[in-house]
Known about the structure:
CATH architecture: Alpha-Beta Barrel
Strand order of the largest sheet: 3-4-5-6-7-8-9-10
CATH superfamily: NADP-dependent oxidoreductase domain
Strand content: 15-25%
Number of helices: 11
Largest sheet: 8 strands, parallel, barrel
Distance between the termini: 27 Å
Helix content: 25-40%
Shape: globular
Number of domains: 1
Amino acid sequence: MITRTFGKTGMDVSLLGFGGSEIGYPEITVETVSEILNAALDQGLNVIDTAECYRNSEEKIGKAVSHRRSSYYLFTKCGHASGFEFEDWDPKMLKLSIDRSLQRLQTDYVDLVQLHTCSEAQLRQGDVIDVLLRAQEAGKTRFIGYSGDNEAAAFAVASGVFQSLQTSCSIADQNGIDGWVKEAATAGMGIIIKRPIANYAWNRELKEGAYAWDYQQRLKTLDFDFLGSSEDVSRALRFTATVPGVSTMIVGTTKPNRWSENAQILKEGPLDAKQFEEIREVWRERSNPDWIGLT
C-alpha cells in the first residue's frame, strides 16, 4: 500500500485509510468487522478513523483489532454527547467522551483525537480546544485535529493549534482544494480526506434527503464524461489522491473485499496533470457558487 507522510507528526500513513461510520450499524457484526479490518491490515492498511457518534463503531473496532494495536494508527473524534446527559460540545462531556472512546477501543491512547465538526464560534471560544490539549498532555492522544469544512476548517487551520485537518474533498466537493486544504498543506498539517469518491453518488438510487443526495444532484450538473464508464471509480478516487497535500483518504465499507479493491486502484498512481486539470476545469465552469463543503 502506498504511504504518505502525515504532516509534521512523523507518521507515515497508508494513502487509503478506513472510515468507521458504516460499520456502526447494528446489522454489521463484529465478525464482519474483524474480517474486513484484519484482511486490510494484512494488505497494508494502517489508518483506522472512527468517532464517538458512529453508534457502536468504536466498540467493534476494539473487539476486532485491539490485539493488533501496534499495526495501525487509530484516530477518533469527539463533540457529540452520544449518550451522555450533556449538551454537545460541553467541555466536561468532551473529557468523558475521550475516556469512553479509549475504553471502547480497548487502548490506552489514540494517535489522534479530532473535534467533530464544531462551529467556528465554538473554536474561537477555546474551551473545546483546551480539553484536547489536556488529553494530549495526559498521554491519551498523541496529536489533536479538527474535522470539518468551510469557514470553521479555515479557522482551525489558521489557529495553528491542530496537527491535522479532516475534510471533504472529491470530484463533487472541490472548494477546499484552493482554500483550507491548500492552507493546511502549507502549514504542514496531516490532511485526512473523507468522502473521497463522493459516496459513489452517481451510480446509486437515492431518495431526496439521503446522505449522498446533494452530491448526486451536483454530479448531474457537473456531468463528467467519465462517469458511468468502466473507469469512473478509478478516476474519482485517483483525482482525490492527486490533490496536493492529501495524506490519507478514508473510505468506509461493510463489504470484506472493497478496501482491497480500492487499494488496488490506487496502485495505478495519481492522475496525470491533464486529467486532473480537466476535472478541475469542469468544476470551475459548472459548479454553483453556493455549493459548500459537505460534512
